[in-house]
Model the fold of this input.
Amino acid sequence: MTCYDRQDLGLLLLRLGTGGVLAAHGSQKLFGWFGGGGIEGTAAAMEAMGYSPGKQSATMAGLAEAGGGALLALGLATPAAGAAAAGAMAGATAVHAPNGFFAAGGGYEYAASLALTAAGLAVTGPGRLSLDHALGHAVNRGWMVPAALAVTGAATAVVIGLRNRRVREAAEFGQETLFDE
Done:
């Protein structure tokens, strides 16, 4: 008989809460659920924020959030799921960073909290109350953690770097700012 401990229950609660929020957030982007803009509305917003092309950016962010969140909640492919969600939230953090830390002032507090929690779950693993555990950790091997975080980190750095360059160039050439940072 298996006896679950506080750590297993705590990881389950973190996964369900964080994964659920991320899945809902991504569903706004992909499907327009929960008052979201769907792909078209999100694509326009992404372009305005400096992420181009907008439709591809909206799709990738939506998939990383909805897919990563759903997988985190299930405790399946936890390293990849956590890394994908953390990468998407790092992109949101970059947009909100000029507004300071606190979310009440438009800052990056919320996005950074989700990113850090998702990355923390990628590192710690899902616990025994998870599909990864039930499947013998076939998609949750130790080597997958640094690989997923490294690949996602590199891709995220490139995407955010290109976005920041677009925003900077728009400001330098006197173009009207599309997104008030």
About this structure: The mean pLDDT is 94. The chain has seven helices and no strands.
